[in-house]
Amino acid sequence: MSERIVVAAALVDGGRLLAARRSAPADLAGRWELPGGKVEAGESPEAALVRELHEELGVAAEPGERVPGRWPLRAPFVLHVWTARLLPGSAAPEPLEDHDALRWLAPDRIWDVPWLDQDVPAVERVIAHLGLG
Ligand code: 523
Hints:
seven-stranded mixed β-sheet, alpha+beta, 7 strands
């Protein structure tokens, strides 16, 4: 089966990184992730990122650049990460779907939350890429 990309956002505002706590499915609930979702057929990763952030968090966001790396999820999914920022005038993020809590993490707080196992190496790469911390 061919690979399917899940895009996730390193959404940064004022030097803090947004983390979202999953509310479903049961095996992922309570763990924290970089918010995002599956790229649909015919959709660019950037468009998927903007769509997912709008659906899940109610924000208007702009993708930046791809954070180098790819992290395998349950087959056939592979996680790709993009930087993103809120557009001027965007609503503040709210946990509308899939999440039940959000936190803006300052660099010295990033490891305070229990990230999904598969997000840990991605978050490490985000920190290095953005020079956070
Ligand atoms: N992950 C993951 N980390 C991460 C994301 C955004 C997603 O491990 N940062 C995993 C969780 C799911 C799969 O990727 O197993 C798909 O993510 P999901 O459920 O957020 O994708 P959606 O929102 O596109 O899913 P549905 O619309 O519910 O099909």
